[in-house]
Specification:
By secondary structure, this protein is mostly beta strands. 6% of the residues lie in helices and 39% in strands. It contains 4 helices and 55 strands. The protein is globular. The termini are far apart.
Length: 623
């Protein structure tokens, strides 16, 4: 059997190097620094999950037909090590074994002024073989006596990856909407079953890859669960759920709605198994229930939406109109798959929850391609789970990783037309587009009195890391409070190191970015341009003052184009965390009542930086 692919096809790993300004080389007057690497626990969890899936697949392939070797024997004997190398003017290397916990690596005595960069890769040793599963490199940076921050993204290598096309199918079971029969059928093409659960109950080989091939529209909710089997176990290594044809004629149409809710109340498809499931050339629709009306992923489930998968026209009265991702479950969106036209009170397209304080189970969605569009969210309260026309991410163990695809034309009542990131959850954007090339693709937050974040709303200590991609032509309709046509960092953290926020609009303030009085915005790279708002100030970035608290604006690099400006209320400051690029105009400042001069206290400097207002003022002209 060929190797089945890992199902988390991309992984991010952000690394931060901390520079000490107090170290000196022994017996020398030249300054030196200590460069430290700390392993991010969430990145570690993602890598471990991906490697574990690959090792189990490797085990199934190597033990196929060998009754003397158990899976436990082959999957337990492997190690995962992350190697880090400093290159350039100064060279050194170190490693972290994942078995040793989160850990960190320090490089002592790195000369200040050295131009260096970092390479990293994750090596897996298993079954007398070694392979590099993930790798990445940082940009070059000059070691200074201040703080050096380097973002390093680890992506899966070809050697550590796979795809649905790599999987060799061992057996096919057929399900037919027109001629299927669970009592008299045998799962063959001539005598198909009537339900997906009956096909699952027919699996017999724990290492095999089974395909369930559906012909026509199944008119009732379906399940993939061990509850349908005689011994409470699904005997399979990998499952592929596919339509018989490549057209849109094969799908689940549960046929449920508010009118039928008293009689039937269910998800169109419920998945309750740790066995990886691919869905391709197949539709899921007509679900009506509280959570996950289209696709409900119970804890431990791992689902990949491959080419031709469509989840549409489902309604959840609470969370996740299209998909509900439980703690411990994972979803990967690939190719041209779609999540569209779904409705929920919170998370019109997808709801992800990882707020499981007892077991800390991590829930994640990775989007490498496809689209999420035309989903609707209707919540109106201002605390707890709320918002997310396309996606709501809730909880400290919940994350969404955006590597590609497009998210557009989604609508939230008030909070986050595309994304709502809440309760210490994480959104990481590396590529892809939120919005589109013009306003016809806009994600919208529509409430006139509280349109928070046309594209992204961050609150309750949520985190949004933007390292690439575009947020374009999204709209906040708020006319009396809040705003943020692109991003609203209401009471969370927004870190922008690359990408662009362009052409977004707000009916009140913050055409590009709105920073609430307890929000934080780090502008470390990328560009903000051509955004608009009804007010003449805050067209690029609006900093809020409320209840004796100011939104925080930290600058390392990047720019707010001259087409936009940054609004600063009286008493607010800009924190300078490094020297912006020599010729880079960072932002045009629009003060509330004063005209900034070199003597005005609008700048604060991170400890250790040898700078004054005069050093940076010319990069921040005033209106």
């Amino acid at each position: 059997m060929k190797k089945a692919g890992i199902f988390l096809t991309c992984i991010f790993l952000s690394t931060v190097f901390f520079q000490s300004c107090s170290n000196f080389l022994s017996n020398s007057d030249k300054k030196s620094a200590s460069v430290r690497y700390s392993l991010d626990s969430r990145a570690k969890a993602k890598i471990n999950s991906g490697v574990s899936s690959y090792i189990q697949t490797l085990s199934r392939n190597s033990t196929s037909g060998d009754d003397t070797t158990s899976e436990d024997d082959t999957t337990s004997d492997y190690s995962v090590t992350l190697f880090l190398e400093l290159c350039g003017d100064y060279e050194d290397s170190a490693s972290i074994s994942f078995e040793e916990g989160e850990g960190s690596v320090s490089f002592e005595g790195v000369p200040v002024g050295s131009l260096i960069y970092a390479n990293a890769y994750v090596k897996v040793s298993a079954q007398d073989t070694e392979y590099v599963a993930y790798e990445g490199s940082s940009d070059a940076f000059t070691v200074t006596s201040g703080i050096n921050q380097v973002s390093l993204i680890l992506k899966k290598t070809e050697e550590g990856s796979g795809s649905e096309e790599d999987i060799e199918v061992d057996a096919v079971f057929y399900v037919s909407a027109s001629i299927g029969n669970d009592q008299t059928g045998d799962g063959s093409e001539s005598y198909p079953y009537a339900s997906i659960s009956k096909a699952v109950a027919s699996f017999t080989d724990d290492e095999a890859t089974y395909m369930i091939c559906v012909d026509g529209a199944l008119s009732s909710p379906q399940t993939i669960s061990p509850d349908s089997t005689s011994d409470g176990t699904i005997h399979a290594g990998t499952i592929i759920l596919a339509g018989l044809s490549s057209s849109a004629s094969d799908y689940i149409d549960a046929g449920l709605s508010s009118e039928t809710a008293e009689e039937d109340y269910a998800s169109a498809l419920t998945v309750s198994t740790e066995i990886p499931l691919y869905i391709k050339n197949f539709g899921i629709s007509g679900g009506y229930t509280t959570n996950g009306a289209g696709l409900y992923l119970e804890s431990g489930s791992s689902v990949i939406l491959a080419s031709g998968a469509v989840i549409q026209n489902n309604t959840a009265t609470d969370y996740g109109g299209g998909v509900y991702v439980s703690p411990g479950a994972t979803l990967v969106i690939e190719d041209d798959s779609q999540i569209c036209g779904n409705t929920a009170y919170v998370g019109g397209g997808i709801y992800i929850t990882g707020d499981d304080s007892e077991s800390s189970l991590f829930a994640s969605v990775t989007m490498n391609g496809g689209i999420i569009n035309s989903n609707i969210e209707t919540s109106t309260y201002d605390e707890g789970p709320r918002g997310g026309g396309a996606v709501c991410i809730y909880g400290s163990c919940a994350a969404f990783y955006l590597y590609g695809g497009q998210i557009y034309s989604n609508t939230a009542s008030a909070y986050g037309g595309a994304f709502s990131v809440l309760n210490s959850a994480t959104l990481c954007m590396y590529e892809g587009m939120i919005g589109g090339e013009d306003s016809t693709y806009a994600n919208k937050s529509e409430d006139d009195s509280g349109g928070y974040g046309g594209a992204v709303y961050i609150a309750d200590s949520g985190i949004f890391n933007m390292e690439g991609g575009s947020i374009m032509y999204n709209t906040s309709s708020a006319t009396s409070s809040a705003g943020g046509g692109g991003v609203c960092a209401f009471s969370g953290t927004f870190k922008m190191t690359d990408g662009k926020i362009y052409g977004n609009s707000s009916a009140f303030t913050g055409g590009g970015v709105y920073v609430g009085s307890t929000g934080i915005f780090y502008l470390n790279g990328g560009s903000i341009a051509e955004n608009t708002c009804t007010k003449t100030y805050g067209t690029g970035v609006y900093i809020k003052y409320y209840n004796e608290s100011y939104g925080a604006f930290h600058v390392l690099d990047g720019s707010v184009d001259e087409s936009n400006n940054v609004y600063l209320p009286d008493g607010a400051t800009i924190t300078i965390e490094g020297q912006p690029s020599e010729d880079n105009l960072v932002a045009v400042i629009y003060p509330e009542t004063y005209i900034p001069t070199t003597s005005t206290s609008i700048f604060e400097f991170t400890d250790g930086l040898d700078k004054t207002a005069e050093d940076v003022f010319y990069k921040f002209p005033g209106k």
